Amino acid sequence: MSVPDDRPAIRARGLTRRFGALTAVDRLDLEVRRGEVYGFLGPNGSGKSTTIRMLCGLLLPSAGDIEVLGRRIPQQAEALKRSVGYMTQKFALYDDLSVGENPLFVASVHDLPRAAAHARVETLLARYWLTDLRRQLAGTLSGGQKQRLALAAAVLHEPALLFLDEPTSAVDPQSRREFWDSLFELADAGTTLLVSTHYMDEAERCHRLAILDRGRLVADGSPRALMDGLPGQTFLVECAAPRAAQQALAGAPGVLATAQIGASLRVLAQGSAADAAALRHALAASGIGARVEPTPPNLEDVFVAATQRPRHADGAAA
Q1: Do the beta carbons of residue 38 and residue 205 sit within 8 Å?
Q2: Cβ distance 297 to 234 under 8 Å?
Q3: How distant, in Å, are the alpha carbons of 6, 86, 92, 210, 292 from that of 59?
Q4: How many CB atoms neighbour CB 141 within 10 A?
Q5: Which residues contact 264 (CB under 8 A, 6 or more apart)?
């Protein structure tokens, strides 16, 4: 079944999943356009993996409606299998099979004709720099090599939609960079990608981004739009004692977050504190002289603002 270009690859309305008394996903509305790289960003336990498993048809929702590539989920999940790929952070490989045997086994699961499967595997081994490792057992590979092999297996059947659940959590920065180059190559060829990540630099690479917190969608848009729409203001504080400045501002009214960056302090503020003079005054009250200047927001600022926990009277996060 082909999907018109103007129909979203993924549409979910009121998507909810409960585990007993715990609501892991809470009335989530989601729309992913075809051919885009859509990111999921959120703390541990925010519902990213649970949402992906429901969208794949691997987990039944407690409530809500899902449509993926024009098919209703979970009712038509079986028919969807040939059109989607799924890659987890644990790299679902068979350690006792070789690099070449792993994707061939996946091809047999998808009932691909033998000749076509061998040709496709050869193409993918070359594309992901694995040809010279074809006889090596998958269990002996490095993290980056396992990642590339898992991606090759996930796209073997040329899915129109690829789900990736924190696929770079166990690899080095260079492998992450190369992996994202591969993802954009897939997107350029028309594949829709939904990627969950913990890394801000990866989230910034996405065309659009959803920030989840405690099962709810708290922000949605392009990284640039989210940064431009950040409520409040970010500041860079330069002083002789950034650690003391951080302690002086911790829990101050209107100060959402502080983070030491080298010898400077980054401050996210709102309300009456979103003013350089107000911050300088607060620091001076603790005997700290500082230079305070506005600085452009980054995605981490957006994340902190969107997932900010309410505070108790003693200043501790709820």
Answers
A1: no
A2: yes
A3: 27, 13, 18, 20, 49
A4: 20
A5: 236, 237, 238, 242
> What whole-number distance in Å separates Cα of residue 250 and Cα of residue 289?
17
Please, is 69 exposed, middle or buried when counting C-beta atoms within 10 Å of its C-beta (0-12, 13-18, 19+)? buried
The residues spanned by each domain of the chain are: 10-221, 228-306
Pull the structure tokens for residue 74.
């979970």
> pTM for the complete prediction?
0.88
Averaged pLDDT, groups of 10, the chain, 318 residues long: 68 97 96 96 91 94 96 91 88 90 92 92 95 95 92 94 89 88 94 93 94 95 95 93 93 89 92 87 93 94 80 40
Q: Tokens at residue 119, please?
A: 């040709």
CA gap 207, 224 in Å, rounded = 9
Q: What is the pLDDT of residue 62?
A: 97
User: Residue 64, CB half-sphere, CA atoms under 13 Å: how many?
Assistant: 24
pLDDT score for 309: 55
CATH class of 10-221: alpha beta
**What would the DSSP string read from start to end of the chain?**
----TTS-SEEEEEEEEEETTEEEEEEEEEEE-TT-EEEEE--TTSSHHHHHHHHHTSS--SEEEEEETTEEETTTHHHHGGGEEEEETT----TTSBTTHHHHHHHHHTT--HHHHHHHHHHHHHHTT-GGGTTSBGGGS-HHHHHHHHHHHHTTT--SEEEEESTTTTS-HHHHHHHHHHHHHHHHTT-EEEEEES-HHHHTTSSEEEEEETTEEEEEE-HHHHHHT-SSEEEEEE-S-HHHHHHHHTT-TTEEEEEEETTEEEEEE-GGGSSHHHHHHHHHTTT---EEEE----HHHHHHHHTPPPB-TTS-B-
The CA R_g of the chain, rounded to the nearest whole Å, is: 23
CATH fold of 228-306? Alpha-Beta Plaits (3.30.70)
